[in-house]
Design brief:
By secondary structure, this protein is an alpha+beta fold. The protein is built from seven helices and 14 strands. The strands form three sheets. The chain has a six-stranded mixed β-sheet with strand order 3-4-2-1-14-13. α3 packs parallel to α4. The longest helix has 20 residues. About 45% of the residues are buried.
Length: about 260
Amino acid sequence: MAVICVTWNVNSLRARLERVGEFLEQVKPDLLLLQETKCSPEQFPHDAIAELGYKAVDVSGGRWCGVAALAPAESDLTILGSGLPGQPNPDEARWIEVQIGDLTAVSVYVPNGREVGTEHFDAKLEFLGVAAQRAAELAVNGRLLIAGDMNVAPRDSDVWDTAALEGSTHVTPSERSALAAVASAGGLVDAHDALLGVDDVQFTWWDYRGGSFHRGFGMRIDHFLISPDIADSLDECTVVRDFRKGEKPSDHVPLLISF
């Protein structure tokens, strides 16, 4: 039986709870990894998620950040770790490690970096460096995936217009190398590349402004990094575009894999 895993930056779980419920009902994922939940620990909607037939584990930090994992209520989902050991700004909720069945999974929300050459950009590169170290440690456990909003477009083809982003974050060689190092350290591969190839164009984020979604002005910055045994049985890697439409969409779409 195929396993469906999804990563989705919801840009506020409480604001997007109805859309998340709609998604769970339609898609019925075995694992849903969320980022940018923007909940304090007390605000995380465990009861509402339980009413949808799911349970959740979360690392919540208030107004910004926040990561979580959801799985069917009858599953054996458990939290293994909260926070990325050694990360800069450790009070920011950006990393959660979970176990479900024989799968170790991470939901990660990599810092945006804001502007090249700033302390925020340096912290982004430091975060990715520490993530690479942790990926190597987790890889010894067997089946592994690290997924989330990684705020890096790996190639020029992963953005709508390289000229428009020249000198900006998300596309610099240092960010791309740092993300590639996370995959390499964990022996992981990009699910998109493994199944669809490097020439396929599949954006996961569009700015709310300027009609960017309808004009195709997007970027591929949400990723599944998966161990080779998952890649060997991968049969789908797709964005669920309808959830960027309609009422109160996130600026990211869910990214779905099945294996």
